[in-house]
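Sequence in, structure out. Go.
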Amino acid sequence: MTKHTPIPSPSRGEKPKQTSLLERADAAFGLDRLGPAKVPHNLPKLDRRVQPDAPPPPRHADPSDNAQASPGQPRPEPRPEPRPEPRPEPRVKLCGQRVAIDRDVLRYHRLIVPEDPVTGLLEEFRIIKREVLADARATRDPASRRILLSSPHEGEGKTFCAANLALALATERDVEVLLIDADVINPSITQLFGIEDAPGFMDALADRGQKPEELALETDIERLFIMPAGTSSARDAEFLTSAHTGEVLDRLTRSAPNRFVIFDTPPALAASPAAELAAYVGQAVLIVRADQTGRAAIEDARQLLSACEDIKLLLNAAQFSPSGRRFGEYRGRENQ
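Output:
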């Protein structure tokens, strides 16, 4: 049991002394011996310098992070950090050597001459280019601005049509045209325009360090560029099927929404390049010659080009029109 010591009463005539509880406890238990512990003198000194590998100071929490939603109100959703807008890819500029086109050579091969009066041939290819432009602008797919021209057999006019389509497209104010000679077996675009052969399409496919835009020859016909077939080899088919082919064609149409690339390819039933390139284009034009190309050949060629979803037929060398429509020359009166 706890011992209770009575508090002594003051003497008679003596004024009672006011004693606090602490003083009473001190008298009873000797609390004056208690005190703070002594600090040792051999403690290590604290290094207050910031160490190089010290972790960064903690981030001060946002008071709104721990804020409790009021009853009946949903907790606010955290705000997502804004993403930076992607930068547009730079436009690849065609920057090959500048060459001059002999207009007399164009007339000799019965091609469109930009400076000459309007002819029935130009009017017919105006109709063809309108179809090509409309389909390309409707989809806005870069592949739709790559147009392949081929034929089932040779001698059906596919190079003639490819060159005239390129010349007709180049007359558009807001269009840039690159005509590529992809007929590496029998190249003839440079001869058709009266220019010398030069490195071109196959060189860009064979050499990954070669920039294809540097092989596009700038002609003196405004907005028209020509890329020769280049150096042919026994591995041409392998180059066309490689992934680098897609990279080259994407580079030629990258960030250039008004640039059209036209391919003159070998006959579809004679060589494989037309079928290989069909996978990289958005439009294919199959040239068939009136009274010469058979239905079976057309079906076989169309099947080979089926990697392209949009295949058009162009009837060449027709002597009549079922509707009776035929373009001729329409000239103004000469000045007297």
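Check: Residues 101-112+120-290+300-316 form a domain with the Rossmann fold fold (CATH 3.40.50.300). Residues 332-336 have pLDDT under 50 and may be disordered.
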